[in-house]
Amino acid sequence: MMIQPPPPGSIIQIDWHRSADSKEYLSRIRSKKQRRRFGLLEAPVLPPHLSVDTVRYKVFISGKSGVGKTSLAARLAGVDIPNMHYETTGIETTVVFWPVKLRENGQVLFFRLQLWDCGENALRRFDHLLPSCKEQVDAILFLFSFTDRASFEDLSNQIARASDPSDNIVKLVVGTKFDLFMHTDVTERDVRKFQEVWGLPVFRVGGDVVGGFGEVAPLLNALAERLWYQDCMAMGAAQPGPVTVTEARVPLPFRP
């Protein structure tokens, strides 16, 4: 049975990244006013008085060729977006760290999101790639481009291919190239109708990567909130807040 998502902002403080309280945590994922890129074995290093638990999740980015899967991964990680489009030849992974504060008890958690990106042509040529991307996945981001009508109309095929209605995987839809509004092939009416039919939230991204978090924070917060809620409900908690990190997800200690 699919777990119904919580109302936005009911589990985490969605504007916490703008508060003074968050600055020292966010500084650990920045370097010289730019986002720091983390390798598979790296993590933010915090002083003892800021020691927090880290929870780990696997996120698969699904979408037609050219919609911006690799660019979205770069955007969420805060690194340079490729100037030219190239087809991802296999599976590429990107690690994103994002701190959140739980609303009920004020606990701060670092979410470690490992983003999996695989080229559409590679998925078609090699049968084992899609099962690898879906194996033990916690969330799927379904992408379409506002400048590519066909990618929007393909969303239903994406959702059917990469997930099952009965699973408990977190599913979010992301519309890319939203800044190119003069060339849009997808209207707001189209988006509203899709949301009514599928019951999935649609997030919009576009524009340049900057040192701030304003553009990516809504998507990262929604992803973190739904993942945490899903784990808590899977543990049978009536209220998500009191579930400990150890119960919900084995933490990754901060180590350099």
UniProtKB/TrEMBL annotation:
Coiled coil: none
One of the record's GO molecular function terms: GTP binding
Keyword GTP-binding: yes
Keywords for this protein: Cell projection, Cilium, Cilium biogenesis/degradation, Cytoplasm, Cytoskeleton, Exocytosis, GTP-binding, Nucleotide-binding, Protein transport, Transport
PROSITE patterns: RAB (PS51419)
Top-level taxon of the source organism: Eukaryota
The keyword Transcription regulation is annotated on this UniProt entry: no
Predominant localisation class: cytoplasm
Family: Belongs to the small GTPase superfamily. Rab family.
Matching PANTHER family: CILIOGENESIS AND PLANAR POLARITY EFFECTOR 2 (PTHR14983:SF1)
Protein name: Ciliogenesis and planar polarity effector 2
